[in-house]
Amino acid sequence: MPQNPTNRPGDIAPSRYPGERLGLPESGPRSVGRVGRRIAAIAIDWAIASLLSFAFFRYDSWATIAIFAALQIVFIPTLGGSIGHRAVGMRVVAVRGGWVGVWRPIVRTLLLCVVIPALVWDSDQRGFHDKIAGTVLIRS
């Protein structure tokens, strides 16, 4: 990787756009999903979980979180993303390519349910939950 203008050993030049260091395009399909789409996706997923919780558990907060987690864990490896992700044109992929597997959605979702990791992002706009799971949220 190129060094930054200060030429200090170990320093890496900043990315010009989110996803550049991951080899993703700046815009269009396969580019990193941006904040607006992410917020819309999580709002859709939370609304679905809330409706199901209301219908079956009288809107119990723990049931809502459990349903939200189940939707993430089931749909990321099967559909490539949650219902919200797919509705806004995004999908979750493994950074190293291939199938995302089963463990990545579980780890990603458990961290997402803690909330704090989702609020800590890097220059590629990957939340801590995505970094730990080795995933990235991209546009379809």
UniProtKB/TrEMBL annotation:
Q: Mind telling me which InterPro entries this protein's record contains?
A: Pra-immunoreactive, RDD, UCP021697
Q: What is this protein called?
A: Putative RDD family membrane protein YckC
What are the start and end residues of every segment in region (Disordered)?
A: 1-32
Q: Which domain of life is it from?
A: Bacteria
Q: How does it sit in the membrane?
A: Multi-pass membrane protein
Name the Pfam families for this protein. RDD (PF06271)
**TM regions (residue ranges):** 39-57, 63-84, 105-121
Which segments constitute the RDD domain? 59-134
Establish whether keyword Transmembrane is in the entry. Answer: yes
The compartments listed are: Cell membrane
Provide the coiled-coil residue spans: none
PANTHER family per record? PROLINE-RICH ANTIGEN HOMOLOG, PROLINE-RICH ANTIGEN HOMOLOG-RELATED
Keywords assigned by UniProt, alphabetized: Cell membrane, Membrane, Transmembrane, Transmembrane helix
GO CC terms: plasma membrane
